[in-house]
Each structure stands twice: as C-alpha cells, then as structure tokens.
Amino acid sequence: MQVAICFFCIGLYLNKKATKKTVTSTTIDSEKIKTLGISKREYEVLELINQGFSNQEISSQLFISESTVKSHVSSLLSKLNAKRRTEAVKIGR
Known about the structure:
Layout (H helix, E strand, L loop, with lengths): L1 H18 L10 H7 L3 H11 L4 H8 L3 H15 L4 H8 L1
Helix pairs in contact: 3-5, 3-6, 4-5, 5-6
C-alpha cells in the first residue's frame, strides 16, 4: 500500500512538471497595442496566446469563461486584421 502511494505521488509530480507551460522569450509590444485600439483584457489574452496557452488554460488563468476568451480572441483577430492566433501575435510583436 505504501509503495502504491509513493508511486502515485511521483506520478502526480511528474505530470505536473510535464504539463507546465514555459514562457516564451518574445514579448508583445504594449505601445504598438495601444495604437491598435486593443483593450487591457484583450492584451492579457494576447500575452497568454503568445505564451502558448489554449483557450481553456487562458480562461482558468484569467478567471473568465471559455466563451469569453473566444470572444476576446475573435475581437483581437478582427481588430488586428489577422486570420489566425499566431498571426495576431506576430502583429503584436
């Protein structure tokens, strides 16, 4: 029983370590974003997209629903005249 608990704890630790996202070295230019007319929340969403987070992960990071994240992403794509999330990040850089 103790061996099973030990392996369970090791598994939890390794899973947490493996699923942890790393921050990318590039950053979004906040001055450029201001000129594009993006809201503060849309900027936060764009930053998290830049770091590689999914909509579900962004919603849990910002404590908003996933549908709200989708709305922000849609608004970002429209305001930045981008077709994809990666293109929006490139424009933001």
